[in-house]
Amino acid sequence: MNRENKRKQFEKGYYKTHSCKDSFTCKVCGRLVVSAGAGSGHRNHCPNCLSSLHLDIEPGDREADCGGIMEPVGVWVRKTGEWAIIHRCRRCGHLSSNRVAADDNPMKLMSIAMKPLSQPPFPLERIEEMTALMGGDGCLYMK
Predict the structure, then answer these.
(1) Ranges for the RNHCP domain (predicted)?
(2) What is the pTM of this model?
């Protein structure tokens, strides 16, 4: 059974209380994704490329009619210390958060986490000058 047709077969809210053991083929990287190894009964993204599909408005409700690709755009750390992936729908721009699964690609997670540091909104060559303009002494080294 494919993920797109699941919401048509079960009553509203079914996936909030029932685990999903079905496998699916990732629409982005083409790999077969199985629920085993996720560390949870709710597999909602590909462990290889971390992409998902826009199926829910609220987690587990299968009420979204969009069906667009949810691409991973960031990570954040919950107050419990658990990491979560921020997904943005390519079609409608909807943002959602999904907990990291036990078998997620660690290099992909780290590359998403490091992206803001590797692409700052200012030229790194001017960091000393900008620090001085903000009231600092502009020096990046200890005196």
Answers:
(1) 22-110
(2) 0.72
